[in-house]
Amino acid sequence: MLLPGPEAMQLATYADGGCAVPLGGLLAGLLFRVAGCGGHSGVGIRLCVFSGRLPLVRPRFMGIKAALISLLLQALAQSGTKALARS
Length: 87
Fold this sequence. Notes:
Helices cover about 80% and strands about 0% of the residues. It is built from three helices and no strands. It has helices at about 5-15, 25-50, 55-85. Helix 1 packs antiparallel against helix 2. The radius of gyration is 19 Å and the shape is flat. The mean pLDDT is about 75.
């Protein structure tokens, strides 16, 4: 687990699982995911709509893409070296 998202998801589901409503955990997990999906979809839609029209938007998103790719590659390298060290 490289990101705190899975732990937060499990905690939200576990915390609401003990509610008086039998499906509290399921509802909490579903709403937890819907919020993140809506945020990511909103950013994606804005990128598709405004990237061609606003010349300042495209370079900023390209910088964000480069930063995310470098973070993912760094996390992959770290987890790979840990996995190889264990075996």
